[in-house]
Amino acid sequence: MPEINGSHFSATGCRVFPFPANRGQKHSIELKNAGAADSDLNGWPLTGAGAAPAFTTSVIIPPGGYLIVPCSAAAGSFHLPVALPDAGGIVQLFTPAGVRADAFEYGNQVANFSVGRIGTAWVLNSPTPGADNMAAAVAPNRDIALNEWLANPKPRRE
């Protein structure tokens, strides 16, 4: 079976993504061919945000190559016809036989960053479309402090 998996995605949009192929749409899913041979995605369904289109023509990803799939009704070639919700969702890729090849669930998104796979972990990324993912710089845990604590909150009125 071809080794196609999710590489990164952006549900809020990234100003730095240069996407001429998808007419300026900034929501996207990037797929990577981790195998040693060309992979043809013809017939592979990609699901997200309630949409489940399948690739209906031959789309080849070379070994180690990437494919950026725009998420917008206004996008060009193959695309997910809706934007990914920025509050969270699940994206799944299936083989033509219906076997799930990959899936990832995500929560709230940070503007101008993507979430990408580095090794087997999904982490916050600086956008790198069409290239290996690069983890975004984040503050070390030692710099995080408890800011506020409320021991006995007042009841809420509806």
Overall radius of gyration:
18 Å
Mean pLDDT: 79
The secondary-structure class comes to mainly beta
pLDDT below 50 for ≥5 consecutive residues: which ranges?
14-24
How much of the polypeptide forms β-strand, as a percent range? 25-35%
The first-level CATH class name:
Mainly Beta
Largest sheet: 6 strands, antiparallel
Strand order in space, largest sheet: 6-2-1-9-10-11
CATH topology: Immunoglobulin-like
**Helical content (DSSP H or I, runs of 4+):** under 10%
Instruction: Tell me the total number of β-strands.
Output: 11
Could you say what the CATH architecture is?
Sandwich
Count of discrete domains: 1
Q: What would the principal axes of the Cα set say about the shape?
A: globular
Count the DSSP helices.
0
Q: Give the SSE order as H and E letters.
A: EEEEEEEEEEE
Distance between the termini: 55 Å
What does this structure look like?
It is a single chain. The chain is mostly beta strands. The protein has one domain (4-138): Immunoglobulin-like (Sandwich), CATH 2.60.40. 0% of the residues lie in helices and 32% in strands. The protein contains no helices and eleven strands. The chain has strands at residues 4-10, 28-33, 39-40, 46-48, 60-61, 66-70, 89-94, 100-106, 114-118, 121-126, 134-135. The strands form three sheets. The protein has a six-stranded antiparallel β-sheet, with no helix packed on it. Strands 4-7-8 form a three-stranded antiparallel β-sheet, with no helix packed on it. The protein starts with a strand and ends in a 23-residue tail after the last strand.
